[in-house]
Each structure stands twice: as C-alpha cells, then as structure tokens.
Amino acid sequence: MTNRPLNDTIHRVTRRVIENSRQSRANYLDLMDRESDRQVNRGTLSCSNLAHAFAGAEEDQAAIMAAKGPNLGVVTAYNDMLSAHQPYHRYPELMKIWAREVGATVQVAGGTPAMCDGVTQGEAGMELSLFSRDTIALSTVVALSHSMYDGVALLGICDKIVPGLLMGALRFGHLPAIFVPSGPMGTGISNREKQRTRQLYAEGKVGREELLASEMGSYHSPGTCTFYGTANSNQMMMEMMGLHVPGAAFIHPGAKLRQELSRAATHRLAAIGKRGEDFRPLSRVVDEKAIVNAAIGLLATGGSTNHAIHIPAMARAAGIAFDWTDLSELSSAVPLVARVYPNGSGDVNHFHEAGGMGYVIGTLLEEGLAHADIQTIWEGGLEAYSREPGMDGDALAWRDPGPSGDTTMLRPASDPFQPDGGMRLVEGNLGRACFKSSAVERERWTIEAPCRVFETQRDVNEAFTKGELDRDVVVVVRFQGPRANGMPELHKLTPALGVLQDRGYKVALVTDGRMSGASGKVPAAIHCTPEALGGGPLSRLRDGDHIRVCAATGELSTTADLGNREAVPQPETEMGMGREFFAMFRQHADGAEQGASSMLAMAGL
Questions:
Q1: What are the protein's UniProt keywords (predicted)?
Q2: 158 a known binding residue?
Q3: Which CATH superfamily is domain 423-571 in?
Q4: Cis peptide preceding 495, ω within 30 of 0
Q5: What would the pLDDT profile of 278-327 be if each residue is shown by its tens digit?
C-alpha cells in the first residue's frame, strides 16, 4: 500500500521542534563533530594506556592491540534481581563470539545500576528511582570515557534504565549505538484477575498469602513484566526511533529467534562504525524526527505516562527541545491503535502475537502518521520496522505481519479505538499536568469535587481504610515532585482509588508525583508543575477546596482564591535508604516538563 503524505499536525509540530531546537541542536552536533575528529586512535595511545586497556582481553588481546577491526563497548545494566535483566548475564560472552565472526572484538565497558520499580513501589527506595536515571547516564559516560570503542551496545530494558543509557550514550554520539533487548516473560494469570485480587486486598477481603500468590502468578520468570508499563514502552520507543534490530522488542528470552536477533545486533554494530562504508553515529540517528516518532509511538499505543518526563530529557541530551505542548498537540492527531493491559485485557505477548510493533509501525506509516525518512541503525529507514522477524531455517528473515490478529487489541490507524492518542495536557491555576485519557472511560474524563489534601500516599491509604474517602473526592498528594522527594511513583494508590470508583464515587487524583505506566482506570492529573515545593499552587490548597479536572477541555483548576494564602511548608525530608546522598540531585532538579533532571540542568543543556 502507498503511504499517505505526512499528517499536517505532525509536520507542524516537527517543524516547531526543529525551530525551537535550532541553536541547541547545532551546538550538540558541533560538539559531536569535534569529538569525532579528536577521537583517540588506539594506535596512538601510550603503551601503558594500551596495556591497561586490554590486559584482561584474553584471546582478543592481539586483535585489539593490532586494531584489526572495530572494538565494541558493552554497557550493561545486568543484575539477576531484575527479571527483565537476568537474561543479560551471558550476553557479553556470546557477543564476543559473534563479534569475532565479523572480525570485531567486544569488551564490557562498564555496568550501570538497575532498579526495579516493582520492588520499591511504596517504599523508601522509590525516592531514588527517578534520579537513578541520571546516575545511569553518568555511569554510561564513565564507561565510555576510555577511548577504546568504535561502537556501543546498550543492554537495558526497564523504566529509568533505557532513558539513562540513551542520555549517557548521546554524549558519545559520534559513535554508533544499538540497544539489545532480552524480551518479555511468558504470560501468567490474567490481568483482570490480578487487578481483582489487589482491590480485594485493599478492602481487607483477602490476605497477604492470597495476594502474594496472585502476584507470583503474574511475575514468575526471567524477562520483562508483561503489562504495558514503562519498560515495554521503552522497547516500543526503541523500535520507533530505529535503535533496535527491527522487531527485536518482544521476543522471549531463550528463544532461537532472540539469540539470532542479538547476534544480528552485534554484527550490525560492527558494520556501522566510522571505519566502514555505512557510518551511522548515534547523534545523527537520534534527531528531531526520531524524538517525534518516539512520542507518536507512545500515543498510538497508550504507553507509559513516565515518558512525558523521559522523552524531554532524552531529547535535551541530543540538543532537542520537546515539551508537553508538543506531546499534547501530537496526541490530537495520533489515533490510539493498541489496547494493551492496563488499557486493555491482553498483555504484550498477546500484542506481539496480534502483529505487535511491525503492525503498529506499518499502519502509522500507511496513514502518514510517522516519519518514514529517519536514519535508523538498520537499512531501509522506519519502513524496515514495519515487518516482523522470524526464522527461515537457521537464518533470520522478516515478513509482513499482515492484518491484525486481534482487533480487540490492535486496530488499523484508519479505524482506531479512539481518534486521539489519549495523553492530554491539563492546565489552569493549579499548574500544568498530564492526563492519560486512553486509560480512563470517557464518562470519567471530567471530575468536579471537593479535595482532600495529603503529603504521603501512606496517609491516603490510611484515610481510605478509615472510610474517610467514601464520597466524591479529588485526592491531592503534594510534595512528591523531583525537588521535594525525588518524584516517586504513587502506584500503591491505585487499588484504593479504584475501589472508591467502583463503589460509584466520582474520584480523581492530582499530584506533582508520578504514576506508573501500569496505572489506569482512575482519572489522574499527574506530574503537576510547578511542584508544591517552592510555593507551587498545590502547596496552597486546603481540604474542601473545589477542584475541576477535565481531559475534554484540558482544565486543571480550583475555585479557591490561592493568591491570598500562605504556601504550606514542605514536610521534613526523611533520611535513610541512602536518600541523603541524593540531596544534590533534588536540590538542582528542574521541572517535570523539562525532564526532571539535575544532571541536565547543572550542565546547562
């Protein structure tokens, strides 16, 4: 089928992003050109430098010393507590073998931390989560600072890890880089059953033993969690930006196809270096169109709200300005073509079986809803990502995914679930916030009710248990922004608020904190900026103030006269769990709409 011309709104937003980024992008590309020109040639390093660099290279030592072929650096976020990253344990060994097949070598350049937000939800460690992204970026920079590499393989999947790896790698954008995923675990118990058990537990109708059995039925083996949260949204975006081998996102760990895709990534990375004939530096792959494509994919698939923070931060690392106005305007033009749990009943395995990313990209391109002409790590631009991978005997092959295998989960862009992407900007005298309308029934897009104000999600759950929230209510949870306490996810609010909604009450959440990519169902204005700390509007709210949250009109407002009120001071910052070591990150962080990064703010980017 012939692709339609690019949608006018997408064209307009892209031109605005390019114009707003003109100077910062030029500065970034100039830096990358200078870095490329002065890149250290291993042959010019002193003997002492070289000896240190490949003393542990064993059988690859002679090849690295002679500079016979490209030397590829691996930055790995491996640990075996994180199920999605457990399969990475043996990747470097295998990649060394695959690199030798094409005359290249591989060294592990370094490792990064890798938090599991599922483990830290509702706990003190969650206050480190967002800033772990900056820590990962810094770790990536340290890993690549040895001037030994001709290309970078990035091993990371989950929430803050992919954005952090990309942000760090972009500062070495004169090198090519490829993300190498490991794939999702198999499908466990139904998501509907898991959600039902969580709400029963919140009501005290089942015990901890039943809840744990349910959770273990969901999260049961190596691989990415199968709901469509931030981790799987990361994988979607890497496909939309052309940073994977096409179709690599959702193939199971241990499958022959998964191994061959990782092998192909290693071979491809060796082929696109500066010394080859198809040089594709990361700085040129991640451009304004690629960033817009990432946002389009997020909107078209109902992806994680966390990326309203991560996309601006990743863009800034490449000298690109992208904000919530851009995201909201794109949302008005990009239809919702996928419903994956928590926005639908099936998980990412069902999504992949129905056609997955190949289908999504194909239908978007057909309707002129994505930039086809981006430079990807693979040949053929984004069009190459509209096909799905498979095995033809022992060889990799790609084929047309055909029509949707399940129209309750995946539909063509010409006949979508809804005409817009469902990530809306709401704003007013309470600030600017994000509202994920694709996860909420339309009759709940507008909530008007008195508010109840809290400073912690623990206090919310205690009030719920006491029956104090059994009414129409807008729950406000403030002092959860990046400068206040690191902007933790407030996922433990979801069961209680869901119960209230199921009881027939009109319920909404307003917060300067985050909600997980797994959140849904309850209307929520999240990432509210300016945050409460420092006198933001939320700090002036009082219990009983009337609040209106409306995704249809883009409104976030109160009838209260906030101008005549004193701001409530921030509660005392808690210590322990190492949170005190992140005081610098909190102090220097910028707003959620800018990416909530202290590292980028302090660097003047």
A1: 4Fe-4S, Carbohydrate metabolism, Gluconate utilization, Iron, Iron-sulfur, Lyase, Metal-binding
A2: yes
A3: IlvD/EDD C-terminal domain-like (3.50.30.80)
A4: no
A5: 999 999 999 999 999 999 999 999 999 999 999 999 999 999 999 999 99
